[in-house]
């Protein structure tokens, strides 16, 4: 029942368009068979598997090395945004303890060691301020203006995926991080 209806619909449509209702010619069955056989014969190369013995630091270091070689071969003009790009975000502080970081607390997401001047950004801010961007931080409450004045920070770390519009400043001790607390800041790209 369905086949005659399809043929009738095709004939009506072609007659309305002024085209003969001829069915298109199909390739010989050997051509189709050969094409299927060729497609099944070629198998893609398997992706390199990551062994369970590799630590998180080794995996991260390899990813950074791959990114460095791929960015060196690409025609990217600049990695940092235009000077003066600004965002207002929530700022907290962290220090290098496993409870606040992953299993490698002294290694940043870019593979460098934590040190004063390193900041971690939430993933939404990383689109605006990519890794390696030099930024200045201004405390909007005015309490820590002297501590931050003239200081340049480098974006080298990232925060947990659940965090949005947030900046984490690395501090050497837990007491410094607790004194920093949580505050509104303005982050500005300088280079």
Automatic annotation (TrEMBL):
Transmembrane segments: none annotated. Keywords: Signal. It comes from the Bacteria. It holds the Pfam family 3D. InterPro entries: 3D_dom. Residues 129-189 form the 3D domain. Residues 1-27 form the signal peptide. This is 3D domain-containing protein. The lineage of its organism: Bacteria, Thermotogati, Deinococcota, Deinococci, Deinococcales.
């Amino acid at each position: 029942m369905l086949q005659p209806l399809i043929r009738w619909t095709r004939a009506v449509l072609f007659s309305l368009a002024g085209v003969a209702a001829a069915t298109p010619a199909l390739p010989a069955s050997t051509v189709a068979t050969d094409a299927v056989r060729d497609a099944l014969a070629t198998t893609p190369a398997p992706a390199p598997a990551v062994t369970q013995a590799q630590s998180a630091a080794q995996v991260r270091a390899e990813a950074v090395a791959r990114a460095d070689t791929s960015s060196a071969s690409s025609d990217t003009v600049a990695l940092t945004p235009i000077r003066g790009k600004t965002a207002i975000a929530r700022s907290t502080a962290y220090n290098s303890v496993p409870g606040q970081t992953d299993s490698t607390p002294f290694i940043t997401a870019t593979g460098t060691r934590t040190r004063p001047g390193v900041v971690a950004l939430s993933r939404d801010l990383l689109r605006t301020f990519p890794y390696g961007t030099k930024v200045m931080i201004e405390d909007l409450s005015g309490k820590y203006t002297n501590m931050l004045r003239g200081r340049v920070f480098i974006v080298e770390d990232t925060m947990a995926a659940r965090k949005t519009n947030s900046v984490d400043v690395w501090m050497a001790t837990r007491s410094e991080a607790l004194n920093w607390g949580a505050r509104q800041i303005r982050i500005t790209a300088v280079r």
